[in-house]
Give the backbone structure.
Amino acid sequence: MNALSILGGGGTKRVLALGAHCDDIEIGCGGTILRLAAEHRGLEVLWVVFCATPERAEEARGSARAFLDGVAKARVVIGEHRDGFLPYSGAAVKDEFEAFKREFSPDLVLTHYRHDRHQDHRLVSELTWNTWRDHFILEYEIPKYDGDFGSPNFFAPLPPATLDRKIGLLMKQFPSQAGKAWFTEDLFRAVARIRGMESAAPEKVAEGFYCRKACF
């Protein structure tokens, strides 16, 4: 499988990471963010989470700091919308998207998969495409009970040490999720191994994404 550099060339690169909930970005594309931070000096990241309780907001801020360690410039925004009710706050969320659009023009946008069955995730994906129509957008995936995994068409191979760091940070930074059956090391590692197999990743693990449009 041929490789493509998503942030090729010199100069500062800007990444926008969008998540409906406090651990979505880390689960869906945390390894890719760690890899980009290691490979691109001068990286700028705007990290946005839309739903959070006070307890989970503290977890989200600590996790974002850990995942963005070494990034040249980072801004973390944690919203206060209710989990599960994002579509019913649609107008307010749309206003936030428009505000981010005015202040940050990314080279890469990381967002939710459009066919995710969680309503909050779908809204974030829909508004991403509505707001950044001429940008390079990759949709990440979240494992869950709904069984909505698809077949990604874009892959980011990871060094095993990067995957280990991603999983280690997830386990450390989100103690509120420790009792949930799906929040386990073996699940996160299994997903990365499957995506690594599908992409013939050199070191056997990868994160999968959905790329709707790209121009060469």
Q: What stands out?
A: The mean pLDDT is 95. The CA atoms of residues 17 and 82 lie 19 Å apart. The helical segments are 24-39, 54-67, 90-103, 119-131, 160-173, 185-198.
